[in-house]
């Protein structure tokens, strides 16, 4: 039974694909499920760890640094200030109360285009600079 459970954990096969030498797959699955639910696996681990620790076979010193544990790719540049509080629909300002979402997007795009034109016009009139 334990060999069947360990085989499944090591290989990642589906329970139904367990080799027949471990017995009926449903029996192995049910036993694993029951032992997980009642804490048998946790107690077994604690006993094995205690015996290994008493024999001096476990080194409990842990060293973790950035070469071992990497930050998630989205962790860089995280926001430090709290996110803005969303405005509920009833609290909208009168200025944007009757505006559709696409209308505010179009208005913002117009602002950006005008800013870019102004920037381009200022760049044309300024003397060239070298770096």
Features:
131 residues, mainly alpha, 4 helices
Structure, explained:
The protein is an all-alpha fold. It has a domain at 2-54. Helix content is 49%, strand content 0%. The chain has helices at residues 2-11, 25-38, 40-54, 101-125. The protein starts with a helix and ends in a 6-residue tail after the last helix.
What's this model, at a glance?
Helices cover 49% and strands 0% of the residues. The protein is built from four helices and no strands.
**Secondary-structure element series:** HHHH
- Name the structural class: mainly alpha
Radius of gyration, in angstroms, nearest whole number:
32 Å
The amount of helix comes to 40-55%
Low-confidence stretches: none
Average pLDDT score: 79
What is the number of helices?
A: 4
Q: Please outline the major beta sheet.
A: none
Query: What is the β-strand count?
Result: 0
Structural shape: elongated
Ends: how far apart?
Answer: 74 Å
Beta-strand percentage range: under 5%
Topology:
Layout: H1 2-11, H2 25-38, H3 40-54, H4 101-125
């Amino acid at each position: 039974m334990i060999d069947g459970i360990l085989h499944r954990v090591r290989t990642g096969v589906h329970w139904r694909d367990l080799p027949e030498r471990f017995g009926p797959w449903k029996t192995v699955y049910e036993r694993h499920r029951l032992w997980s639910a009642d804490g048998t696996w946790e107690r077994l681990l604690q006993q094995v760890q205690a015996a290994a620790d008493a024999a001096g076979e476990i080194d409990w010193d842990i060293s973790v640094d950035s070469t071992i544990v990497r930050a998630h790719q989205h962790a860089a540049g995280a926001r430090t200030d709290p996110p803005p509080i969303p405005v509920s629909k009833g609290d909208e300002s009168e200025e944007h109360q009757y505006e559709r979402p696409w209308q505010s997007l179009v208005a913002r795009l117009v602002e950006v285009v005008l800013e870019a034109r102004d920037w381009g016009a200022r760049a044309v009139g300024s003397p060239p600079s070298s770096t």
